[in-house]
Queue: 2 jobs
Job 1
Amino acid sequence: MADTFQLSRRSFLRQTVAFSAVPALQPGRIFAQGADFAAPDPNAQHMFMIGDWGTDKYIDQQKAVSFGMRTWMGAHHVQPQSMFLLGDNWYGHLHEGLDDERWQDQFENMYPANYFPGPAYAVLGNHDYEKSKHDKVQLQLDYPKQKKTRWTMPAKWYTFKYPAQNPIVTFICLDSNLPGTKAFEFMPGSYLMSHAEAEEQDQWFQTELAKPRTTPFLIVTAHHPLYTNGIHRDNHVLIPRWDRLLRDHKVDFYITGHDHDLQHIEFDGHPTSFVVSGGGGAELVNWSVPPESRGPFGGRVIGFTHLEMARDGLTLRHVDSSAKQLHAFRKTPDGKVTLLRS
Ligand SMILES: [Fe+2]
C-alpha cells in the first residue's frame, strides 16, 4: 500500500531550481528542514481533513482511514474539534436522497461523534456534481437543514473563521467545479456549475480576499488542485483564475483532494503551500509525473491530514491509514515553512 517519496533538502532544492525554469514559478524561497518530530499539542486546535472518501466501491479502505484517524488520536492524546471534507463526498448514488442509509453508514457512523464531535465542513467535488434520481449537490446543501448532523455546508462557497473564539484561521471554501474542469463524463447526469455561478463566486472570492486580515492565517479549500503530481495534472482552468489571487493575497495554504493520494508542493517565491489530501478511501491512482519532480512530498496511500492550529504556527501532518506519520511541516505567520522529521 505504502508508496511514498520524500525529498532530501538537497534534492528538493535541486528539483525546485529545475522546475523554476517554468516562468511563472521563480526561485527564491528559503526552507528550513530537520526540526524534530513534534508531538501534537493537546492544547492547540485540531482539524482532521479527508478528501475523496465517499466511495461506493472501496468501503474497506474508507473504514481503514477512519480507524487510522482514531488510532492516531489515541496514540497522541488529541481529539479533533472539527473535520474538513474535501469533496468527492459521494461517489455513485444516494437512491433514497436525504434518507439514504449511506449518510449513516459512511458519514455519521463512519466518523462517530464521540471521536469526531465537532462540525464537518464540506466542499463539493466532481463526483458530487452528478444527478440521477437526486441531485447530490442539492442533497448535501439540504442535509444539514433537515437532519441533526455535524455536516456543515451552508452554501456551495462560503467562509468562516476558526475557532469561533479568538480565531486563528480564516477559511475560504470554494466550489472548484468550474466550466471546463471535467474532461469526460463519469456517469449520466454529470454536470458542472454554470458560467454565471463561476463569475459570481470569483467576485465573492475577490471581495473576501480584499477584506482586512483578522487572523494570522488564511486557508483556501476546494476539491480540485491547481498543481498536482497526481493523475489529474495541473489544472489549466483554475490556475489562470486563482493562482494570481493566491499570490497577491498571500494565501498560506490551498488544500484540496481530487487526486487519491497525499501531497505537499511548494514553489520558490510562491507564498502558498499546496496540499492534496485525497486519500479518504477511494481507489489509489498513479502519478502523472514522478512526485520527486516537485516536492517536498508525495504519498500514494490512503490516509488523512491532521491540521494543528495555534496562533504562532500551523502544523500539517499527512498520516496513513495505519496511523503512521508520513510527512509533516510547520508554517509560521511570516510564511516560513519548516519540514518536520517524521
Ligand atoms: Fe475528484
Job 2
Amino acid sequence: MPTITVLGTGYVGLTTAALFSAAGMHTYVVDPNDSRLASVRQGKSFFYEVGLDPVIAQAVQTGMLIPTNSYRESVPHSDFIISAVGTPDNPDGSSNLQYVYAAAREAAAHMQPHAIYVQKSTVPVGTGNHIAKLFAEAGVHNAYVSNPEFLREGTALLDSLWFDRIVVGGNDAAALERVVDVHHIVEKARGAIAQAAGINPPTTLPAGSYISTSLESAEMIKVVSNAFLALKISFANSVGILADTTGADITQVLAAVGADRRIGTAFLQAGRGYGGGCFPKDVSGLIAAGLHQGVQLTIMEAAQEVNEAMPGYVVAKLQNALGGTLGGKRVAVLGLAFKAGTSDCRRSPAITIANMLAARGAHVSAYDPQANDEARGLLHANVQVQKQYDDALTDADAAIIATDWPAFTSQAPAEFAKHMAGTVFVDAMNCFEPASVQAVGLQYIGIGRKAA
Ligand SMILES: NC(=O)c1ccc[n+]([C@@H]2O[C@H](COP(=O)([O-])OP(=O)(O)OC[C@H]3O[C@@H](n4cnc5c(N)ncnc54)[C@H](O)[C@@H]3O)[C@@H](O)[C@H]2O)c1
C-alpha cells in the first residue's frame, strides 16, 4: 500500500486523509494550525460533516491517520503528496496562491524522487506549470498531477466514495495512472468505509468515471464546473425575482423547466443565493483570471452581481412585510451555515441576512443546528445566538428560514407559529408550501412565489 501525505487539514484535506487512511493507506495530514491537529488527535473533525468523526476516530486509533505539523516527518516517507491547502481570494477577487506555492516549495525540500505531487486545491490555469518551475528551481523533477476535488460539504463522504468523476491531468501518463490506482484503493474499500461512517450508499449509483486530461484542462474543469453551478443558481434567482412580479410560482416553473433532461433540476432553485468557501471565490477567481488574459467573462460578472444582491432582496421583502421598518422588530433567523449539512459559515448568505437585519435596528435572534459556534465570530454584535430554535422564535414578529436544515423543513408550520408574536414568515429557501404556512395564520413570503 502506498503512503500518503495530505497537506492541509481543512474541509477537503481532512476528509481526503480520513478516507485514504480508512482504505488502508498510512496517511499523514499536515497543517500549521495546531487546534485543527489537536482535534484530529482526539479523533474528531473541527467541522460538522456527517459520518466523518467515526472514520477519523478509527483511523487515528489504529495509527493509519497521523496528524502532524511537520513536512520533515511526513513528506520523505510518502509516495503521494496531496496538496489541499486553502486558496482564498485576494481583495480584487483573484485567487491567492500563497499557500499553494508555499506548500509546494516546502514539499520540494523533502520529497523522494519517485513521489508524485498531486494538486487537489482549486487553482487557476497555469498554476501547475508555475509549480513545475518552482520544483526545477529547487532541483527536483517530481511528477505533478492536477486532481481537482469535487466533494460537497454536507455530503462529502458520499461524494468522494460514490463520485461522478475523478479527473487527473498532467504530462506524465504513468503518474496519472498511479494517481488513478490510489483512488481505486479507496473505491474498493467504499462499502466498508461507509459502514464505519454509519452512512448508507446511494440508491442510484453514479457513473463513476475516471477522466485523464492535459494539465491545463484539469485545472479548468473544476473552476468551470463551479462557475456553471453558480450561473444556474443566479439564473434561477433572476427569474425568481421576475416571478415575484408576475404571479407565477417559480418552484413550479423551475421544476417543469428542469424536467427537460437537457436542463435538469439540480441547482435550479430560487432562494437567498450561494455562499461558502468555494463558489464566491471560484467565480471571482475565474473572472479575474479571464481579465488577466484579456477575456471579459461578462456572464460570470452578471452571476456574481445577482448573487450579491440576493440577501438584500430577502431583507427588503421582510422589511416591507413589517410595514417598512425593521427598527425594534424581533426577527428569528433560522439557519446560519452557508448550506444544510455543514457547520461552514464562510460567506454564508444567512449570516449576511442576519447582519443586515441587525444593522437596520432589528433585534435578531438566530439559531443553527450545527453552526452556532462558527457563526459567532462572523455575526453583528447585536445578533443573539440561541441554543434552541424555539428560543430564537419566542415572541418574534417575523421568522426567516435562511438555511434549509431538515430540523426546520421537517417541522409543521404550526410549530413556528405557536412561539411567535407576529405572523411574518419568510421562506428564503423556498422549502415550505405557501398554503401550509398560511393555514396556520402566518403570512408566507418566498422568492418568486405567490401567496395562495
Ligand atoms: N470546501 C469545499 O467544499 C471544497 C470542495 C472542493 C474543492 N475545494 C478546494 O480545496 C481547497 C481547500 O479548501 P478547504 O475548504 O479545505 O480550505 P480550508 O481553509 O478549510 O483548509 C485549508 C488548510 O490548509 C492549511 N494550510 C495552509 N498553508 C499550509 C501549508 N503550507 N501546509 C499545510 N497546510 C497548510 C490551513 O491551515 C488550513 O487548515 C481550496 O482550494 C478549495 O477551493 C474545497
